[in-house]
């Protein structure tokens, strides 16, 4: 057997590399400890198995920016330990593109991929404004059906309707984790309804007495879909709770909440509804004039590339 000889210089290099690795681990450890208190608390509760799971329901559909939107959201799931992502595609089958995003983010054990097609009569056509027809009804209802059949009815968890084009602070999910069993948590949403912020109005006892909504303020719950999270036990208690096409524009939130809570029972979060942790942002429609010109020549800039 031949003898392996290690020179002193090689030993020195190995020692230096070992020290550098130790320093990196130490620095990363300190960096983790110096993170926001709310995130530290979430990880501590997760290790103790006392952090409620949050089922985030996201309807999605094929479009040029779909992968970009879902990739951005996937970074939240990398940071927040108690999120389970239920993605429901508006398609006849689940797609490899969506699954690739989830797997690439390391979420193999933390997602459920479903699909259901929106009926043609409820699909937006051509240049229809996005508000003219209710969106995500089939997809959200399928997710609720899945939850009722697969979630543990005896274990506290939260349900959140998480559209793929909004912007979410990580802290929102720390606040959401405070929702009590049998309650619906509520918080402000920025840049929605023609206002800088839509928010609940509270009395001196921190009870919701109204809302500052400017658009259709007569709605029972004049809030955005991103403004609330729901204790999962309510969906088992009220199996009829669902979304519907047979409601007026802007009433989807009121439609689901009317089964589950009253204004007085809402649980204010986010510093008694003074902190904005979610924004109703929208991605500008992608301009692909040059791409369309290529396609007329039977060419594509992304031929063989998933974008």
Automatic annotation (TrEMBL):
| Membrane-topology annotation of the record | Single-pass type II membrane protein
One annotated GO molecular function is: galactosylgalactosylxylosylprotein 3-beta-glucuronosyltransferase activity
The coenzyme or cofactor needed here is:
Mn(2+)
Keywords from UniProt, A to Z, are: Glycoprotein, Golgi apparatus, Manganese, Membrane, Metal-binding, Signal-anchor, Transferase, Transmembrane, Transmembrane helix
The EC number(s) given in the record are: 2.4.1.135
* A single BP term in Gene Ontology: carbohydrate metabolic process
What catalytic activity does the UniProt entry give for this protein?
Answer: 3-O-(beta-D-galactosyl-(1->3)-beta-D-galactosyl-(1->4)-beta-D-xylosyl)-L-seryl-[protein] + UDP-alpha-D-glucuronate = 3-O-(beta-D-GlcA-(1->3)-beta-D-Gal-(1->3)-beta-D-Gal-(1->4)-beta-D-Xyl)-L-seryl-[protein] + UDP + H(+)
- Provide the top EC class: transferase
Q: What is its main location?
A: Golgi
> Which subcellular locations apply to this protein?
Golgi apparatus membrane
In terms of Pfam families, this protein maps to: Glyco_transf_43
Instruction: Give residue numbers for the site Interaction with galactose moiety of substrate glycoprotein.
Output: 198
Question: What name does UniProt use for this protein?
Answer: Galactosylgalactosylxylosylprotein 3-beta-glucuronosyltransferase
Q: Which species?
A: Drosophila hydei
* Lineage of origin: Eukaryota, Metazoa, Ecdysozoa, Arthropoda, Hexapoda
